Amino acid sequence: MTLPLIYHPCYSALALPERHRYPIGKYHALKQQLLALGVPDSQFHQPEPVRQHELTLVHCPDYIQALCAGELDVKAMRRIGFPWSKELIQRSLTSIAGTRLCAELALQQGMALHLSGGYHHAFYDQGSGFCLFNDLAFAAKSMQRQGVRRVLIFDLDVHQGDGTARLLADEPDIITCSVHCDKNFPYHKQQSDWDLALPASISEQDYLAEVEQALSCLLNWYQPELVLYDAGVDCHQQDELGHLQLSTQALLQRDRLVLGSCRLRQIPVAAVIGGGYQRNLTALTQLHLQLFKAAFELEGNLIAGKIET
After folding, report:
1. CATH number where 150 lies
2. Which of 43, 42, 7 lies closest to 26 in space, CA to CA?
3. Strands laid side by side in the 174-181 sheet
4. Average confidence (pLDDT) over 5-31
5. Is the full-model pTM beyond 0.85?
């Protein structure tokens, strides 16, 4: 079967103020690079936006209504980090649908990758850190409604998945794991089922060992029926908002480890690209491509050899 890839043009179709910190163009750049490498356009699946009432699965109805109507106060929008616009809401509703679709396709075909997602700072009744709605929590609970019993959210973004941890604190069959830099956003951490707060000085070898041990324990202990993997690249040494020092090669090793461990145990894995903050979109795209290289290798796809590390 062909590896499913999920993308929508609206992901990068958002006008932001000049010098805004969020690299909104990375989604379009990533898809264009994959096409240039030879990935056929037919391999991409385009999600339809979720309807607002569906978000009540994980979010407060009043928050959903106020945010979508542009009625949140200035302080709440400042916490999110984006100026309000109809395009912002549309891309958020579509991206959260994309992670759900990614999970559905992973269950069908064993693995799927979303060219967006990882909005793990969104809480029940507030957004934060460029996250309006929590796609990871939404996808996990949606899959449970479709018959999946136990889900593991394995979050390797450099920032703790605080919103995910809080939203799912009372869900015993959705296991949350966050491996993040200890001294980084968010200042106030939440309690995941498994937290690894790593020092900025950690070596690549120790980082990979910590990830491998955590993943092995979680897969063996909980035996999830689905893994949602946040493959954030903001732990790279050139990231402007992360403090870890991973090389591009280490990112590839990490992604090989996660995807390969799931494949070895025949556990479906749905991956989202997560965070990554460089103003140089070409360099940032190359980092996100490591996830696709690792996946294509597992699929035996020769495109993997065209992706530089």
Report:
1. 3.40.800.20
2. 7
3. 44-45, 5-6, 111-114, 269-272, 226-230, 151-155, 174-181, 194-198
4. 97
5. yes
CA–CA distance, 36 with 303 (Å, rounded to integer): 10
Contact between 241 and 234 (Cβ < 8 Å): yes
How far, rounded to the nearest angstrom, does the alpha carbon of residue 198 sit from its chain's CA centroid? Answer: 19
User: Which of the four pLDDT bands, split at 50, 70 and 90, describes residue 155?
Assistant: very high
The total domain count for the chain is 1
pLDDT per residue over 110-144, tens digit each? Answer: 999 999 999 999 999 999 999 999 999 999 999 99
Angle between helices 281-299 and 248-264 (to 10 degrees): 30
Residue closest to 160 by CA, chosen among 140, 143, 177: 177
Report whether pLDDT(109) > 90.
yes
Read off the pLDDT of each residue in 172-183 and give the average, rounded to a whole number.
97
Question: Residue 81 contacts by C-beta under 8 Å, 6 or more apart in sequence?
Answer: 21, 22, 128, 129, 130
Could you tell me which residues come within 8 angstroms of residue 221 by beta carbon, excluding any fewer than 6 positions away?
Answer: none
* Cα 305 to Cα 309: distance, rounded to the nearest angstrom: 10
Tokens standing for residue 7? 């993308």
Cα separations (Å) of 140 from 17, 164, 197, 253, 295? Answer: 33, 10, 23, 26, 21
Domain extent, residue 158, equals: 5-306
